[in-house]
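Archive record:
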Amino acid sequence: MFAIAITIIGVYTEGWLIMTCGLLTLFILMMPLKQNGIISFLSMISFSLYLTHDVIGSNVVVIMGMHLPKTFLFKGLSFITGIAVSLLVAFVFYKLVEEPCVKLSKRIKYAVK
C-alpha cells in the first residue's frame, strides 16, 4: 500500500516518465541477476563496453547526426544504433582481447619468497 502511495505522489510531483524510469530501474535491480540472460551478458562484457563505448558509440551517434535530418525519430535512431554498435564492438573486444588475456593471466605463477 505504501509503494502505491509513493508511486502516485511521484507521478504527481515528478511526472509519469521519471516515475516509470525509476520503477523500471527498481524492477531491474530487484531481479535475480544470475538468472537473467540480458543482465548476465551485460555483466560479461561490461569492462569491454566501458573501454569502447565512448570511442565507438559516441562517434556513431555524431556521424549519423551529421548526415541524418535533425528530427526526433532520426536522433532516436542514431542513439539506438550507437548503443547497438557499442554492444557489438564490446562483445567482439571481449572475445578477442579480454577473454584471452584473462585466460593467459591465470597461467602466470608468482614466485613466493
Notes: The chain has two domains: 1-30, 34-113. The chain has four helices and no strands. Residues 72-106 form the longest helix (35 residues).
